[in-house]
């Protein structure tokens, strides 16, 4: 089974980071657009939600041999660099103003205090999230790897899949389906292992069991899972739940596994040096992309650039500037740790 980087999966990694940036850019949203266009924005947002589940699947797939051979050491190998990255970027985002106009007119503390107080209202959740919302991915990933490692260490591998499914259902019941199931969780249901564990386990089991899904079945899973996911989002609108807030739904694993399997069946898709050069910087882009995004939102606000023009510019500029920022941070030895695991 492959242990080297697979071109098609690296291509998928790049597509996924573009999807993440589109989610956070929020195109076609706001008072400048009609209700139907705002609904289209929500649909685009939800289509892009395959991205983080795909990242989790990738980690589970490639970490599987190491986790089986040396579970605790493997967890430590992920935890040390990722926690360093998470902590460093949490500090950066805690200190970075989001509203430049407020910081300039009222001062740094006036702009930041409200956000800090907001995070302090739920300190346990903040611990599983970090200094800015997108950093939840790192504690979520490490939670999943830690659970798998511990179960393997205790020779309780048979509990991995049932536990992952149980946490997923719990997360759904306390998250998107909370208006129906009325569930509760000690932290926000997207964070921690509630959703991450099942997705990491999916990649882990695909490799451990050498499961091969035909391209035809993978396509059916991809589009069937997407259709189910969007149908769920539209259905949940009747409970006054904003469609764009759903991180994971019932269709998520089907969609993600379908996409992953399709790419795995065509390993030479995206086989070029540029794919590998860019994909190895995806983690860095993930953690840093809010810096150019916040700057662009502030610049566009200052110059009243909004509507279609803003939407055409915001995501592409964020992508280019984020990769550029990662390249710059890699150059200096004292900032390289911010964007690289090694």
Automatic annotation (TrEMBL):
Domain Acyltransferase: 7-328
Family affiliation: Belongs to the acyltransferase 3 family.
Transmembrane segments: 12-30, 50-69, 81-100, 134-152, 159-181, 187-206, 218-236, 248-264, 285-305, 311-329
Compartments in which it is found: Cell membrane
Membrane topology listed for this record: Multi-pass membrane protein
Protein name: Acyltransferase family protein
Domain of life: Bacteria
Keyword Thylakoid (UniProt): no
Keywords: Acyltransferase, Cell membrane, Membrane, Transferase, Transmembrane, Transmembrane helix
InterPro entries: Acyl_transf_3_dom
Source organism of this protein record: Enterovibrio qingdaonensis
GO MF term list: acyltransferase activity
């Amino acid at each position: 089974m492959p242990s080297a980087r697979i071109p098609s999966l690296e291509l998928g990694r790049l597509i996924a980071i573009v999807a993440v940036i589109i989610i956070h850019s929020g195109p076609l949203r706001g008072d400048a657009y009609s209700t139907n266009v705002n609904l289209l924005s929500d649909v685009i947002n939800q289509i892009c939600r395959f991205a983080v589940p795909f990242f989790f699947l990738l980690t589970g797939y490639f970490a599987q041999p190491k986790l089986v051979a040396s579970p605790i050491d493997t967890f430590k190998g992920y935890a040390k660099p990722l926690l360093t990255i998470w902590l460093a970027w949490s500090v950066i985002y805690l200190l970075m103003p989001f509203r430049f106009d407020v910081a300039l007119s009222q001062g740094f503390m006036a702009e930041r205090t409200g956000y800090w107080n907001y995070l302090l209202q739920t300190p346990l959740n903040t611990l599983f999230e970090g200094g800015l919302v997108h950093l939840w991915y790192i504690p979520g990933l490490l939670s999943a790897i830690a659970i798998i490692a511990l179960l393997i260490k205790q020779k309780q591998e048979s509990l991995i899949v049932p536990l992952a499914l149980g946490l997923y259902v719990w997360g759904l019941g306390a998250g998107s389906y909370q208006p129906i199931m009325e569930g509760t969780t000690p932290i926000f249901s997207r964070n921690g292992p509630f959703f991450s564990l099942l997705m990491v386990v999916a990649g882990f089991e695909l490799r451990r069991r050498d499961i091969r899904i035909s391209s035809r079945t993978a396509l059916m899973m991809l589009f069937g899972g997407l259709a189910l996911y969007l149908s769920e989002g539209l259905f949940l609108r009747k409970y006054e739940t904003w469609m764009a807030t759903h991180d994971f739904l019932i269709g998520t694993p089907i969609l993600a596994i379908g996409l992953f399997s399709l790419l795995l069946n065509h390993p030479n898709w995206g086989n070029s040096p540029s794919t590998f050069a860019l994909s190895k910087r995806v983690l860095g882009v993930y953690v840093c992309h809010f810096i150019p995004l916040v700057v662009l939102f502030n610049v566009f606000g200052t110059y009243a650039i909004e509507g279609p023009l803003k939407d055409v510019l915001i995501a592409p500029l964020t992508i280019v500037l984020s990769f550029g920022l990662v390249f710059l941070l890699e150059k200096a030895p004292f900032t390289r740790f911010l964007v690289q695991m090694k």
